[in-house]
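Re: duplicated header lines in exported C-alpha cells

Our pipeline writes sequence and C-alpha cells for each protein into one text file. With two proteins the header for the second block appears twice in some exports. Here is an export where it did not happen, for reference. First protein block:
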Amino acid sequence: MTPDQMRDASLLELFRLEAEAQTQVLNTGLLVLERNPTQADQLEACMRAAHSLKGAARIVGLDAGVRVAHVMEDLLEAARQGYLRLQPDNIDALLQGSDLLLRIGGDAEWADSAGQSAIDALIARLQGQPSAPPHSTLELIEPVIPVPITPAAPLPEPMPRELEVPVVADGAAETRDRVLRVSAERLDLLLDISSKSLVEFQRIKPLTDALSRLKRLQASASRALDVARESVLDGSLDPQAQAMLGEARQLLGECQQMLAGYMADFDEFGWQGGQRAQLLYDAALASRMRPFADVLAGQARMVRDLGRSLGKPVRLDVSGETTQVDRDVLERLEAPLTHLLRNAVDHGIESPQVRARQGKPEEGVIRLHARHHAGMLLLELSDDGAGVDLERLRDAIVAREFASSETAARMVEEELLAFLFLPGFSMRDRVTEVSGRGVGLDAVQHMMRQLRGGVRMEQRSGQGACFHLEVPLTLSVVRSLVVEVGGEAYAFPLAHIERMTRLQHEDIVQLEGRQHFWHEGRHVGLVSASQILQCAEGHRDEAGIPVVLISERDTCYGLAVERFIGERTLVVMPLDPRLGKVQDLSAGALLDDGRPVLILDVEDLLNSVGKLLGSGRLEKVDRSGRQGAGVQRKRVLVVDDSLTVRELERKLLASRGYDVAVAVDGMDGWNALRSEHFDLLITDIDMPRMDGIELVTLVRRDNRLQSLPVMVVSYKDREEDRRRGLDAGADYYLAKASFHDEALLEAVVMLIGEAQG
C-alpha cells in the first residue's frame, strides 16, 4: 500500500477525531499528574492514550505522529514503572507533544516539511538529550520494584476508531449508551417539529372548554323543554304538538349522550396526544443537551499554561461537570468563560511571593461550579486571589474621567464594581498580550445578555472575587410573563424581570415632569409600554395599572401594560432573518390557543426607554385615571412684555377653556417652563433680559422641553424675521399686524388641539 493510499482522506479524518479525543485524555491526565506525579490511574490512562495515538498514526502513515507518540509513551511508561518522577517541565514537554499530535492530525503536510524541526526538538526534549533545555532533564528515582523498561516491545495496534470495540465491565454491555452521529441541522429540525406539535396539542384545551360550554347549553335546553312539557300537560296543546315536543326532548337527550361519549374520547385523545407530544419534545430537547464538561475542554490547560507564562502556579477546580445544558448555550458560553478565567489568572491570582507573605498556598485556585435552578444554569466562578483594590479602582475611574474625584469618593462598592463592566475600562496602565484593552468584562456582559442571561460580581478584599452567571438551560424555550399591550400579546423573559405589580392612580407622583412611583425605598420611572412599542393604547383593568419592572444595574423602570395574561413556557421561533434586527423584539412564539406572541428584547427596551426620556416626549400613563377625578385642561404659557398683549391673549385662550399662565419676559418665561408643565408656549420676540429667540433656543436644547410646541407672535412681519423664528425652533409664526382672535385660536387648536381634547 502506497503512502498516498495510506493517507486516504477518510482515514485522516478518523485520525483527527482520534487525536481530538485522546489529546483531551492526555491534557486532563497530565494536569492531574503535575500535582500528583505518582497517581497510577492517570499514568495508565495517559500511557494508553499515547499508545493508541501511535497505533492510529501508524495505520494512516503519519510517521511524525508515530515518532512523537512513541517517545511520549516511553516517558509515561517509565514514570508508571517508577523509574522516574515527572517534573513540571516534563509535563510541559508532554503537553507540547499532545498539541503537536493534534496539529499533525489536522495538517499532515506541515508535519512532513515545516514541522520537522519542531518535532525533532520536542523528541530531544522528551528524551532528555543535551540539545533540550537544561531544565527539562528527568529526575531519576529508585523504583520500588526494578523492572527493565521495554518501551519498544511490540504491542497490538488499535483498530480504526469506527471499528474499535470498547472494553466494558461485565454486565455493563447492556447499559452502555450507543452513539449515533447525527447532523446538528437534523436535530434542530426535529426539535422544531416536536415543539410545533406540542403547541398544536396545547390548542386542544380551548376546544375542550368549548365542548364543555356546549354540553352546559344542551343541559339548559333540556331543562327548558322539561318546563315547557310540564306547562302544557293540561292539554292546551293538540296531540300532534305534544308528540313533537316529546320527540324534540328525546332527540336532545340522544345528542347529550353522543356529546358526552365524544367528549370522553376527545379528552382521552387530547391527554394521550399531549403526553406523547411532550415526550417527543423532551426527547428532542434532550438530544441537544450536553454535559457542562464539554465547554471545559482545554480550559484547565489554558489556565495552567497562562499561569506558568505569568509565573503563577494556578489550577482550575470544576464541580457540576455533568450538568446538562443545551448545545447552543454551551458553544456560546465558551468565550465569556475564557474571558473570566484569563481575567482571574491575570488580575486575581497574586504572584507566589505575595501569596507566601499573606500565608496563602503558592498555588492559586480558581473554582467553577455549575448547577440547575428554576430552569436556569447557574455558574459561580471564584478565585482565592487578591480581590479588587477599591482605591485603585477609584483612581482609575477618576483618571479616565468617568467621574470626578468627589463623586468617586462617595461611591459604594457595588457602584465602583459596575465600572469594570463599562466598554474600554481597564485598571491596567499598559496593554499586554493578556489584558489592558478594556474589553474583557464588557464583552462578557454583552455575551450574557445575548444569551438572555446576566452576570454580577462580588469580591472580598484580599480573599478573591466571585462572578455569578445565569443563563437559560436552552435557547429553544423561554419562561416568560405574557402581557397585553395595544390589544396584542407580548412576552417578557422572566430572567429579565425584577417583579410585577399593580399601581393605583394615587401611587403615581410627578417629579421633574416625569411620572414615578415608590418601590423598595426608591423612585422608579413609569413609562407606557404602548408608547415604547409604538402601538395604540388599549383599555386597562379597573383594578389598577399593571406594571412590569425591568432593571439594569442601578437603573430600574416600570413599564405600564394593559393586562397580565400569565406566566407561560414558550417555544422560541426566530424571526425571519430578512427582517434584520427588529427594535425591541427578539423572537416570536405561539400561545396555547394558537395566538402569536412577540418576545421582547429587554436590553433593547431599556435603550429605547432611555432615548424616550432623553427626547422629552414621554406620555403620561395615568391619563384616564386623572380624567375620572376631574378633566384636566391644557395649559398655555404666554410670554410677552406688553401688558395689553398678554391680557388679550390670556382672555382669548381662557374663553376657549385653556388654562393660561403669563410671563413678563423671556427670563421669567424660562423659569416658569422649568418649574411647571405646559402644553404650549406662545412668546414675543423683542423682550428685555431674554428675547424670544433665545428662549426658543433654550427650549429646544432642553431634553425635557424639546417636544413642547412653540408659537411666536411678533410685530415683525418680514420674511427674514419669520425665518429667524422658525430656524430657532418655533412651530408657528404669527404676525401681530395680521393678528385677530380666530387666527390665534385656530393656530393653538392646530398645535395642541382643543382645551379638553
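Second protein block, exported in the same file:
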Amino acid sequence: MSVHEQEKSNSATPPRTTGEDSEVVTSDRAEANTPDGNQQHKTRKVELPRFRGRLIPPLDRAIIKILPPVLILALIIAVTVNPSGAAEVINQLRTFVTSGFTWLFILYSLIAVAVCVWLSVSRVGKIRLGGPKAKPEHSNFAWYSMLFACGQGIGLIFWSVAQPIMMREESPVVPAAGGEGGMVWTYFHWGLTAWAMYCVVAVCLAYSHHNLGKTLTFREATVDILPKKAQRSAGVVVELLAIMATVLGLATSFGFAALQFTSGLASFTGLTSGPGLWIAVIVALGGLTAVSAFLGVNKGMKRISETNSILSIVLMVGVFVFGPTVFIISNMSQTFGSFFYNFLPMSFWTDAPTSAAPLDSWQDSWNGWWTVFIWCWVIAFSPFVAGFIARISRGRTIREFVIGVTVIPSLIVMVWVGILGSAAIHYDNESEGSISADVAADTSSGLFSMLNGVPFIGGLLLVVATILVATYYITSLDSGAYALAEFVSAPKKSGPWFRVVLVASIASVALILLSLGGTAVVDTVQTGTIIGGFPFAFVILLMIANLIRRLRLRNKEVKRLEKDINDPNHRVEDDFVDADGLPTRQID
C-alpha cells in the first residue's frame, strides 16, 4: 500500500489532542452538524494535528507499559548484585561492537549528514511542519535554547574542557601539536555531525506527527515501510527500545550530573563528595525538574532553557574577557580552519588497520574510546532528544528546521569549545599540567579546574558553571519526561502529574544506582545503555528510509490530508472524539 493510499484509508478517523502545550486554535463561529442533525453555531477548541494514527491494541499497550520497568529493575539488580560480572559482559559487548561495526557507525553518521543536506537544499525543504498555515509556537531564541539544552548542554559542560585536554597527545588525522588535534576532534564529535544525527531522527518524528497526524512515537514513524503482518510486533519492539534507552540514558546521566554538580560545589564551598551529598543533589534536582515538568513547556522548560542560554553567555564572555583573550582568538582561528579542512577525512576515518583482526579489547581502538563511543551515545539519546525537538518545532519549514537544528547549534558548540577549551590548554601549559592531572583524576573536574585559573572573576564563574550543570540537566530530564510520556501514553494524552511520576521514577533509578553501587555501577549501566545504540541504529535507518519514501510519494492527496488534519476551523469530526481526541464513533 502506498503512503497516500494508507493515509487516505485513515482520513475518516477523528482527531486527537496532543497535550496542554500543543497549538490550540479556536474557531469563534464554526458551523457543525450535531448528532441529532440540527445545524447550529458553536464555539469549540480545535487542537491540532487531528489524529490519523493507529489505535494500539490493549495487549500491546500493556506490554509497552509493564515490560520496560520490569526489565530495568532486573538490570539494576543484576548490576548491583554482581557489578564486576556485569561490567565484564558489557565490556565484551563493547569490544564486539567496536571491533566489527566501527564502519557501520561511520556510515550511519555520513547518511545522517547527507539526508540533512538533501532535506535543506531540495524542494521538500519548503514543506511546513503542521501544514501550510502553521505558525511557530516559540521565538527563535526560545527554540534554540530548548533544543540546545535538551540535546547537548550537559554533555558540553562535561567534555568542553576534558576532551581537548585528554586528546592533547593522541589525535589521528589532525596534528596533535599544541592541542590543536584535541580541539578539532571535540568540534567534530559535538558539532555538525552529532546534531545531524539528532536532526534526522527529529524530522522523521516531526513530519509523521505534525503533517500526517500520527502519534509522536518511533513506531508510527517507522513501521509503515514494513510488511503489514510485521507492523504490529515491530512497533512494540521499536517502542520498547525507545523507552528503555530513554529511561536508562536519563537515569545514568542524572547520576553523573549529580557527581559533577557536587564536584562544582566542592570547588568553592569545601564540601566533600559522598553518598549523602549525592542523595541531596538528586532529590533537589529531581524536585526542580518535577516542578518544570508540571508547569509545561511554555512556563517551565522554556524559561529554564532561556536562563541556561543567558548563563552560558555570561560564562563564555567572562572566560573570553578575563582569560587569555589573545590566545583564545588565535587558537579559535587556527582550529576552526583545521576543522573545516579536516572535516571529510575525520568523517570517513575508521582506523582500518585495527580491523585486520578482531580486537582483544575495545580499549585497543582509538575509535572505541572516542568516535564509536560518542556516536553510540548520540544514538542512544536520540529517542528523547529528537522526540522533544520534534514536539516544539511545529510551524517551521523542513529547511528552517534542518538549518536550525544542525548549523546554529554547531556554531554554538564551536564557539563554546573554542573559548573554554583554548583557555584550558593555556592554563594547563602555564601550570605545568595541573589541569591534565585533575582531569586524569576526575574527568568531571576539568571545567572547574580551568575556571580556577581565570583571574578576578574565577570564583564567580565557578558558581555560574555549577548552576549550569544543574539547570542543563533539569532541562534534559524535563525534555526526556515529555518524550517518554508520549512514548508510553500515546495515543492517549498524558497529563502533568504523569510527567512528574516519570521524573520521580528516573530520579529513583539514579539514586539506587549511586547508593548501591557508586560510580562504578553508574558507569557500567551507562556503557550498557550506549551499547544499546547499536540495535537502535538499525531502527533509525529504517525510519529514515520511511521518511524518504513518504516524501517521495507526497502527492495531492497527502497534501490535502495535511491541510485537513491541521485545519484550524471546526469540522464535523471534531464532535465525535473523547477527552483524549480519540474517536467515539465513525463519521459517515
